[in-house]
Specification:
Strands 3-2-1-4-5 form a 5-stranded mixed β-sheet, with helices on both faces. A 4-stranded antiparallel β-sheet has the order 21-22-13-23. Strands 14-15-16-17 form a 4-stranded antiparallel β-sheet. Among the domains are: about 180 residues, Ribonuclease H-like superfamily/Ribonuclease H (Nucleotidyltransferase, domain 5); about 130 residues, no CATH class; about 110 residues, no CATH class; about 70 residues. By secondary structure, it is α+β, with helices and mostly antiparallel strands. It has 26 helices and 23 strands. The longest helix has 26 residues. The chain is globular.
Length: about 750
């Protein structure tokens, strides 16, 4: 049987909650069954197989599936979210294993193009005709037929026998999904579908199929401990303060404690009990001890530590492994991996560890000189239900989530993480040779910048100066200003008032004068720009004391002066993007000359359609992979220059994308620094992805990818070493010549950070 594409979709029933348990546990559940299969071959008619009416597979479908299961076939199976759903259902319900390389998942194709993943959203964005778009009424039918009814219902399950008319509508809905998916498939550009990305996708699926072993006893003990801790805190609050830590009682009690009965005190109007507000109060040294204790109790009682464990436990397979926790391309555009169900990408570093080390050697490396065994003792205590009072239960359980990922019996974890790969990537692609030489020499980048900024020798850089430089590098590399520096300064625990005091009078005159102009400009902006109704006013000064703001802005300018090629890179990117948008079909370049033929690193091209400007801006990375910006366009507005006060016309780059806060599709705006961030993060992702085939081939079986880190599970033998994994991860692809890549790792039985 010869064909190009088999379009296929399934409708299923299960008593298992898909959202809570994940697709692997769902597929393995004994109640799970495929009720309906709809399919079409190439442009042929949409056919249906009602499995509930006739369990015999239609001959044409059986022959088509047999063809796409052949290793060397040119036929492909096309499905929406097929890899992490339908593929697993067909494996467990029918015993059919379709090779990943023979599957085209339209959701994955969409992610590669920076488009939304859901079928209905794709139909809207791609403007699929309404008669072919996804039937929105289908959600109610899925709720009815694909899930059991509530326990108090007489009918435990709706079927074709109990509700025949609705079932006919359900069949029609299932057929419409094939039509919609087929139209989406034909409408999607193909430049994201490359041989290399398909190789990486196959490894991604192998990682998801493999999963990782879970310390079930630890996870269950942590959940129980957090639950009991919350109850204890509520009882204590009621006994001490006569009210609950939640509900309407909390704020009046807090205000009374914070103000000690003084109605004129600054804390009288505490606006709300949000976590951020309470955190700001805790940062104030003048807050009364009683109010501080109450807030800490509230935060402890509201701890979400236990919620991290639920996806681990509910999604377990029968062999004790958790599968399906990686979403390929979940971080759209860059194609970095995101979490799915259980979120390994945002696990807290934690308040407890087995090692303490606050001293630095001459190269800025932490000296691990003090083994405390705190975390080990905490884990032991949780599993025995006898945690020492020295531990904060909420913080301990937040720390031990990571420790629930363990090696299988007879195995060990070998883990390695790239060292400051984004900083290296930014220096490499921008041609910032001074920074590259620091990395090549193996010296400390933060100390090197601190020595430049503070006009001291490398060896005389203090710990505080290094931390300031660290905040500058982490916060300012992508065109960020005061706000970006503040974010990282806060994360690193910098005292801003002390910072402003210690650095007073140390900046060059031209830097300080420029910072003062920036301050005046920020104040004028605040005065002239009133907030639209219902929105928060823009505050360029961020309500900071003047000296603090000036110091942060001066540090921003010092960073830019110390990294001229990075600053030029931002400008080059924006100029190349603008030129490409205005000149469809022509290519424009930016960055360092890192390509083998001498071309610059990044190529911008706007597509052309029927002789007219196309909908897409394509950005080619050194790896050859394309970053896509759909719905590309320009927006023109007037603005005042903060240094000169001149009114100038500003042209902004706009495109269509998903708002990271609202998750709604709409207009987004970008600029040189933001383009740099997308490109560098995508570059770093490609370095990690390009290393995966070699890591797997050497026997280091990857069980997770967390940011720039690979977790592998290997036999517990001396043949498998951290040094070898580090080496494998740092094998440079041909397109990354002279990239100063470095990795550091560890081995053990339990995941840590």
């Amino acid at each position: 049987m010869k064909f190009d594409n088999l379009f296929l979709d399934t409708e299923t029933f299960s008593a298992c909650d898909l959202k809570k348990c994940g697709s692997y546990a769902y597929a393995e559940h004994p109640s799970t069954e495929i009720m309906i299969t709809t399919f079409a071959i190439d442009d042929g008619p949409v056919m249906e197989w009602d499995v509930t009416a006739d369990p015999r597979m239609p001959r044409v479908l059986r022959r088509a599936l047999r063809e796409v299961c052949k290793p060397n076939t040119k036929s492909r199976l096309v499905g929406q979210n097929f890899l992490l759903f339908d593929r697993l259902l067909m494996r467990h319900c029918w015993g059919i294993e379709i090779p990943v390389k023979n599957i085209i998942d339209t959701m994955i194709c969409a992610y590669r193009l920076s488009l939304p993943g859901s079928l209905d959203a794709l139909c809207r964005v791609l403007e699929i005709p309404e008669d072919l778009a996804k039937d929105k009424a289908g959600k109610a039918l899925i709720q009815r037929f694909c899930k059991p009814t509530p326990k108090n219902y007489k009918i435990r399950r709706y079927t074709r026998e109990t509700h025949p008319e609705e079932w006919r509508r359900f069949l029609k809905y299932a057929r419409s999904d094939i039509s919609s998916m087929r139209e989406v498939f034909y409408a999607l550009p193909t430049w994201g579908d490359t041989e290399k990305e398909n190789e990486i996708l196959a490894i991604d699926q192998a990682i998801n199929d493999r999963g990782f072993y879970v310390d079930i006893a630890l996870a269950e003990s942590a959940v129980a401990a957090v639950k009991q801790h919350k109850l204890d805190l509520q009882r204590e609050a009621m006994a001490k303060y006569g009210g609950s830590l939640t509900g309407k009682e909390f704020l009046p009690i807090l205000r009374d404690l914070a103000n000690n009965g003084d109605l004129g005190h600054k804390w009288f109007e505490i606006p709300n009990a949000q976590k951020a507000t309470l955190g700001d109060l805790l940062d104030d040294e003048d807050l009364p001890d009683a109010a501080r204790a109450l807030i800490e109790m509230r935060l402890g009682a509201a701890s979400t530590a236990s919620t991290k464990y639920d996806p681990l436990l509910r999604g377990l397979s029968s062999d004790g492994r958790r599968r399906g926790c990686l979403q390929y391309g979940g971080a759209k555009r860059t194609l970095r991996w995101a979490g799915k169900g259980f979120q390994p990408q945002n696990l807290a570093r934690g308040a407890y560890g087995d090692w303490k080390g606050d001293e630095f050697d001459k190269d800025g490396n932490v000296i691990w000189a003090n083994y405390t065994g705190e975390l080990t003792l905490g884990i032991r205590g949780l599993k025995r239900n006898r945690v020492s009072k020295a531990f904060d239960i909420a913080k301990l359980c937040a720390t031990t989530v990571r420790g629930c990922i363990i090696a299988a019996p007879g195995c060990k974890l070998v883990v390695a993480d790239y060292s400051n790969v984004e900083g290296r990537g930014l220096a490499w692609i921008s041609g910032e040779e001074a920074t590259l030489n620091v990395f090549r020499a193996g010296t400390d980048l933060y100390k090197t910048l601190a020595a430049t900024v503070f006009c001291v020798s490398y060896d005389d850089v203090s710990k505080d100066q290094r931390q300031i430089a660290k905040a500058m590098i982490l916060g300012l590399g992508y065109g960020g200003g005061v706000a970006a520096f503040l974010t990282f300064a806060k994360n690193l625990g910098l005292d801003l008032d002390r910072l402003a005091h210690d650095l007073a009078g140390t900046f060059p005159d031209h830097i300080w004068k420029a910072a003062r102009r920036g301050w005046e400009f920020a104040r004028i902006q605040e005065k002239n720009k009133r907030a639209p109704k219902g929105k928060k006013a823009e505050r360029p000064s961020y309500d900071l004391p003047k000296k603090v703001w000036l110091t942060c802005d001066a540090l921003k300018r010092m960073y830019r002066e110390a990294n001229p090629n990075i600053v030029n890179f931002w400008a080059e990117l924006e100029a190349a993007a603008l030129s490409a948008i205005r000149n469809p079909g022509r290519s424009f370049w930016a960055g360092a000359r890192v390509r083998e033929n001498g071309d610059k690193a990044v190529k911008f091209t706007r597509t052309v359609k029927n002789g007219n400007p196309g909908w897409w801006l394509k950005v080619e990375l050194p790896s050859g992979r394309i970053l896509s910006y759909p719905g590309i366009g320009l927006s023109v507005e007037k603005e005042e220059d903060e240094d000169t006060g001149e009114i100038r016309t500003r042209t902004r780059i706009k495109y269509q994308g998903e708002n990271q806060t609202t998750r709604q599709w709409g207009w987004q705006y970008t600029y040189g620094g933001k383009l740099a961030e997308n490109i560098v993060q995508a570059l770093c992702r490609d370095l990690l992805a390009w290393s995966m085939p070699g890591v797997e081939a050497a026997g280091y079986k990857i069980i997770l990818s967390v940011h720039d880190e690979l977790l592998t599970e290997v036999p517990d033998t001396p043949e498998y070493t951290v040094k070898e994994l580090e080496r494998l991860m740092c094998v440079l692809p041909a397109w990354a010549k002279d990239f100063p890549l470095s990795a550091e790792g560890w081995e053990g039985k339990r995941y840590k950070k």
